[in-house]
Specification:
Blueprint: H1 2-5, H2 9-34, H3 41-66, E1 74-76, H4 78-93, E2 99-102, E3 110-112, H5 114-130, E4 138-147, H6 149-155, E5 160-169, H7 176-179, H8 199-209, E6 213-219, E7 223-231, H9 236-241
Parallel strand pairs: 2-4
Antiparallel strand pairs: 1-3, 4-5, 5-7, 6-7
Helix pairs in contact: 2-3, 4-5, 5-8
The structure holds adenosine-5'-diphosphate.
Protein name: histidine kinase
EC number: 2.7.13.3
Enzyme class: transferase
């Protein structure tokens, strides 16, 4: 997963801080020992050990996370998947935030690991809810997108036929600085204990592995759309899955 391989920004920064702590403690230990003042040595040793343990925990988390997720892709009708998830998503975000589902009939089939896509949808809706502390609305939209040369350039992605699954909120939006970092593992702006900073990086990895792209369209004070573009899957399964008309699906 390239996003993890890059070890950019926050994570490298945290790791560096811990290394600085370890080498600072060791230096102090050395000075004290040269001065024959042994009483502080144990304290510095404990500080170095504590920092080394935290650094080890950090790399463990990273290793566990960077191990490629094993996917079990299946031809999937995303309209049906969204409809099946709608009740759970609504229950998770709570009754105060209405969720609207917008879809199109004849939706293209995609080849994805369904539980991973369900997780992604739930995560996106939780992020949307968290961005709307004063309330607002969530729109989940599916569409067939034919990325011709111009559209592909506009969205900075390869040409082709994609199914798009987007989650839009009317929340705080993100600054360009935040947008630039959201796919970094462990990047979060949420208070301690509330965010892991893994949601969007896992979604990014899963979508990349499925041959797709993630794009974020966000404006401060207006809201955010996170859009997953998944390549159309052709073949026998396309007919088997059949079109689903979202007009017949339950809406909140
Ligand atoms: P987490 O939700 O645990 O913080 P994510 O990787 O899902 O981890 O998100 C990283 C950060 O991206 C969030 O902390 C938040 O700052 C920002 N973010 C994600 N989704 C939204 C959204 N819909 N609106 C505003 N900010 C968002």
């Amino acid at each position: 997963m390239e996003a993890v391989g890059q070890l950019t920004g926050g994570l490298a920064h945290d790791f560096n801080n811990l290394l600085a702590g370890i080498s600072g403690s060791l230096e102090l230990m050395q000075t004290r020992m040269q001065q024959g003042r042994f009483n502080d040595v144990e304290r510095y040793m404990a500080a170095a050990q504590g920092a080394a343990k935290r650094a080890a925990a950090l790399t463990h988390r990273l290793l566990a996370f960077s191990r490629r997720q094993t996917l079990d892709p299946k031809p999937t009708n995303v309209n049906r998947l969204v409809a099946d998830m709608q009740e759970l998503v609504q229950r998770t975000v709570g009754p105060a935030i209405p969720i609207e589902v917008v879809g199109t009939s004849g939706i293209w089939t995609v080849l994805v690991d369904p539980p991973q896509l369900e997780n992604a949808l739930l995560n996106l809706c939780i992020n949307a809810r968290d961005a709307m502390p004063e309330g607002g609305r969530i729109t989940i939209e599916t569409a067939n997108k034919w990325m011709d040369d111009r559209a592909a350039r506009q969205h900075d992605m390869p040409e082709g036929q994609y199914l798009s699954l987007s989650v839009t909120d009317t929340g705080t939006g993100m600054s360009p600085e935040v947008v630039a970092r959201v796919f970094e593992p462990f990047f979060t702006t949420k208070p301690l204990g509330q965010g892991t900073g893994l949601g969007l990086s896992m979604i990014y990895g899963f979508v990349q592995q499925s041959g797709g792209q993630v794009r974020i369209y966000s404006e401060l004070g207006k809201g955010t759309t996170v859009c997953l573009y998944l390549p159309r899957h052709y073949g026998q399964a396309d007919e088997d899955a059949g079109p689903t008309n979202l007009a017949t699906l339950p809406r909140s």
